[in-house]
Design goal:
Length: 295
């Protein structure tokens, strides 16, 4: 099996940027973590793939990006997060959702998602994180992000994302490409890149036996490729007690102890990996006492 990777390059005299991801392993890990149905695997897999590609603009583990796709469809919200070290993770509200296939035999991601908004939060260590919002156009996710880049970042961009699921519900192939036009990109380069982008419809099939870099060689050969980066994303949750401590604290002392009295312990579950963190009376007391002692 070919390892997951992201390759970044400039083509057409550096006027067009290409980012390609091979994400079969990370989507497979998401399927196993959440026991995803095929349509949920496609929806979350596409979202994880774009999150990882977008996170290549971040610097290091301290910077983070999160995507929330909140439509009115039966999947509920789709959430993906990634840091600058390319640790990516995500979840959907209804992971076992089953829908009939579309007439063309494809998974009906747009019906699962419905209409609504995409929100992207980029925390780059500045005082206020950058928050971008745009409408869901089709719910197929790739088109929705092309719109997001254009309306929120004023950046003409083509996006292709794809996930193929095996009969045994494992991930057969997943991948994606972002094609970004640099400012003042000449008409000719735009035309050539758009022509190529139109051929990316079956991206997961095109990438099946290739690394991200090999894909760029194969697909953009003849466009004057200049590689800028090769990176290795991974599905990895970053939860820990410091995260769930905050969940417990947000309940407030009174509510927390009331629940403790009723249930004997408190439990917080991480949505990204389903790990459960349990708190006994002593731990809850220590948490609130520590908070009470803070200036
Ligand atoms: Zn977790």
């Amino acid at each position: 099996m070919i390892k997951d990777s992201i390759c970044k390059a400039l083509i057409l005299d550096d006027r067009v940027q290409v980012i390609a991801i091979k994400s079969t392993e990370m989507v497979g890990e998401a399927i196993r973590t959440h026991n995803l149905s095929p349509v949920c695997a496609a929806a979350l897999g596409r979202t994880l793939s774009i999150a990882a590609m977008m996170a290549t603009d971040l610097n290091g583990e301290g910077e983070n990006l999160s995507i929330t796709i909140k439509g009115d469809g039966p999947i509920g919200s789709i959430v993906a997060a990634c840091d600058g070290a390319l640790n990516v993770r995500g979840y959907v509200d209804n992971p076992q959702l089953e829908l009939p296939l579309k007439e063309n035999g494809k998974l009906d991601v747009s019906r699962a998602v419905g209409k609504g908004k995409i929100t992207v939060i980029q925390d780059m260590g500045l005082k206020a994180p950058y928050v971008g919002v745009s409408d869901i156009v089709s719910g197929e996710i790739a088109e929705d992000f092309a719109r997001y880049f254009f309306t929120s970042l004023q950046q003409p961009t083509a996006v292709a994302l794809g996930v193929l699921i095996e009969r045994d519900l494992s991930c057969f192939s997943a991948g994606g490409v972002i094609i970004r036009f640099m400012p003042d990109c000449p008409e000719e380069a735009v035309g050539k890149a758009e022509e190529l982008a139109a051929k990316l419809g079956e991206i997961s099939r095109l990438m099946k036996d290739l690394s991200a870099r090999q894909f760029i060689v194969d697909f953009f050969g003849g466009c004057g490729i200049r590689y800028t980066d090769e990176l290795f994303p991974k599905y990895r949750c970053k939860c820990g007690r410091q995260v769930t401590d905050r969940v417990i604290l947000s309940m407030g002392r009174e509510e927390a102890f009331k629940t403790l009295d009723e249930q004997g312990e408190l439990a917080a579950i991480c949505h990204f990996c389903n790990k459960q963190y349990r708190y006994g009376r002593e731990q809850v007391k220590a948490l609130f006492d520590y908070l009470g002692g803070l200036p």
